[in-house]
Recover the amino acids of this structure.
């Protein structure tokens, strides 16, 4: 028997392959959401230290406006310099240079919108990794749409399962 889309065996195999592809994409999206959750939990364990913001400006990369900061803090008796606002590096809703310094609007993974302002020569809390004190951030939030990835992942898996089950209606593969 020849396999083609004009007979039941060909349709069954096609639906099965489409189902596997959709389920695989769904699993990838779920994994992205899960990794973002892991980063959020990881940063929450970091130690807080007082720091001083040295510079706060906007850096242009093509069309994108990114925050550029530099700050100093002391951890375990040693002074460090940091450059990260968030561990994940974005995405940001808006990055704006103001006369006072830098303003960043972002949406957290749970969907809440926030705005933070950083001004040079001010005291700021710095969060650093206790195992690697040179690794630090100014904000523990992890911007990004985690809920969207989770929703897309579940949707992909459900659609994939639908196609796989539907392929079985055409007989064994």
């Amino acid at each position: 028997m020849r396999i083609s889309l004009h007979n039941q065996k060909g349709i069954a195999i096609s639906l099965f392959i489409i189902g596997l592809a959709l389920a695989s994409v769904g699993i990838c999206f779920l994994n992205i959401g899960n990794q973002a959750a892991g980063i959020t939990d990881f940063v929450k364990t970091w130690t807080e230290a007082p720091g001083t913001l040295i510079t706060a400006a906007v850096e242009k990369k093509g069309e994108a406006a990114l925050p550029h900061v530099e700050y100093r803090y002391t951890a375990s008796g040693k002074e460090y310099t940091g450059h990260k606002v968030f561990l994940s590096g974005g995405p940001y809703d808006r990055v704006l240079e103001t006369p006072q310094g830098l303003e960043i609007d972002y949406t957290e993974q749970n969907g809440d919108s926030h705005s933070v302002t950083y001004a040079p020569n001010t005291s700021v809390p710095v969060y650093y990794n206790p195992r690697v004190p040179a690794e630090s951030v100014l904000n523990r939030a992890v911007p990004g749409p985690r809920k969207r990835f989770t929703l897309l992942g579940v949707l992909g898996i459900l659609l994939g399962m639908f196609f796989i089950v539907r392929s079985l209606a055409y007989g064994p593969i």
Remarks:
- Strands lie at 47-61, 64-75, 78-82, 94-98, 101-107, 113-118, 123-128, 136-137.
- The two ends are 13 Å apart (CA to CA).
